[in-house]
Design a protein that fits this description.
CATH superfamily: NAD(P)-binding Rossmann-like Domain
Order of helices and strands: HEHHEHHE
Strand content: 5-15%
Distance between the termini: 42 Å
Number of domains: 1
Helix content: 25-40%
Shape: elongated
Number of helices: 5
Largest sheet: 3 strands, parallel
Radius of gyration: 16 Å
CATH class: Alpha Beta
CATH architecture: 3-Layer(aba) Sandwich
């Protein structure tokens, strides 16, 4: 039986081959604790319930960090919550979305894309050189 190559396996191969030393995975599912509808459109695309998708990424990311740390490769995952993009817009226009859809979030709103990308851009820097095997929710406090 042939071994299945996951996106993580392919990424690590590319990172090693190109002499880069950081692999960052961005998973749009975030961690769902109560399956709030329309909070994040990615959740419906991946049929995520109760944070399973992010939990699987956490398992793979920590495994990749253990396997590749000795080679100087750092592996981290970012799990954004709701981000104000064109992908979120159709869900927000749906009649089932309550008026105060973000009321339960400590920050009370969706993220601007730059708020997520700025965080991601920090991970390959020298300031984050000791970070590996971490899963970072960038979700406005949804998972606290």
């Amino acid at each position: 039986m042939a071994q299945t190559k996951t996106p993580g396996h392919m990424t690590i191969h590319h990172v090693t081959a190109e002499e880069h030393r950081v692999a960052i995975e961005c998973d749009g599912s975030g961690k769902l604790h109560d399956g709030a509808p329309y909070e994040n459109t990615y959740n419906f695309l991946f049929f995520v319930r109760d944070g399973l998708f992010c939990e699987l990424h956490e398992h793979f990311d920590t495994a990749y960090a253990h396997e590749n740390g000795p080679h100087g490769i750092r592996v981290n995952a970012v799990c954004p919550g709701a981000v104000d993009t064109l992908m979120l817009a159709p869900a927000m226009c749906h009649a089932a979305v309550p008026e105060g859809a973000f009321k339960g979030l400590p920050l009370g709103r969706a993220a601007d894309p730059s708020e997520v990308t700025t965080f991601i851009a920090c991970l390959p820097s020298d300031e984050a050189s000791y970070q590996t095997g971490c899963v970072y929710p960038v979700d406005g406090g949804r998972t606290i």
